Amino acid sequence: MREKKRYLLARIEPPLPDPDPKELYFAVLESVTSLFGDAAAARMMPVVITCGAGYAQIRCIRGYEEQVRIALAALASVGERRIALHPVATSGTLFALRRRIACLRPDCEEALLPLYFREKEYMARRYPGQKVDLLEKGIKSQELLFLTQEDLEEL
Amino acid sequence: MDTDACIHPYPAGNSSARRMALEAGDLGFGGIVIPGAEPGEYYGVRIIPAIIISETDIRKVTGQIRKRGNGGNLVLVDAGDNGFNRAILAQKGIHGVRRIYRTPRNAFDHVCARLAGENGIAVDIDLFPLLQEKGVIRQKVLSRYNDLMRLHSRYSFPLTISSNASSILDLRSPDEIRLLCTLFGMDKEDTSRALQTVGTLLSPAGPVTVVS
Q1: Would you state the CATH architecture of domain B3-202?
Q2: Which of A92, A102, B18, B92 would you label with B53, given CA atoms 20 to 30 Å apart?
Q3: Model ipTM?
Q4: Which residues of A touch B168 (CB under 8 A)?
């Protein structure tokens, strides 16, 4: 018998770069399993349908959406990368969820601009509404800082 | 006003206080508690300064309160063993006890719960280990919070909820916190009340006075 599904939309923080959908799927599954156990995870059947542009679409069996939302809120990293997933909406159809994304899509700048902060070189990504993310230039253990335009102007 | 009872911005963390406030505001918080900060407001989010006292001797705690505590600061003390906890819960000038999950199981018992309820001292629920830990450690934390909720239902002491976030990635919205707290048996009404406790700790309801 075909089971009814629920579709969840989660905002990814930081939105760029996009996490690998497969890695995100395993991270979500791991979070569900560690919180509720294997049996419950098998009943919930959480699946990452797609992720990109700062949002992830997740599917689960109807009736388990609250547990999946808890697991998403408890997720702190995908692979080595620290991440936060903030559940935004739940829908009965994928169509309604995609319509919702169209209104929510963030318009952050793809381009990274070089910038000096406290005598270190960073690449800055600016978002509308004051937010600026700084990624330290380098190959290994790059520092990631979350600041605002005002913080940069103060220096 | 929903308030996150403790966050640690740059340089302790990787996000500036302004950015933390901006993100907290976007998530639905009206205030955030920052140790050692100046009172004020960023992007419509109230900044509440706090003092964290991490001592194991009650005399040192008293000295710290005398030295650093004043009306505008939230005074939070790290919990210790049972005797220490009983002593600080009978102490004036303390607003909250934090890091209960790190103490031995009998450290916060029914006597501590009654003292906290009588003196209006809040017990902090730290969400950081729930997000960052897994397996046995997280199970122990959940078990401690379950015990805490049992005592709370009997002695009605105030609760606060803190993310102890050192990054914007550790912040969770009030809705997400309400969901996470169901993991240890805290219902959504209690969570909503706990998110609003910080405001009442700084300006406790006094006796009614006749003005005219």
Answers
A1: Alpha-Beta Barrel (3.20)
A2: B18
A3: 0.89
A4: 13, 84, 146
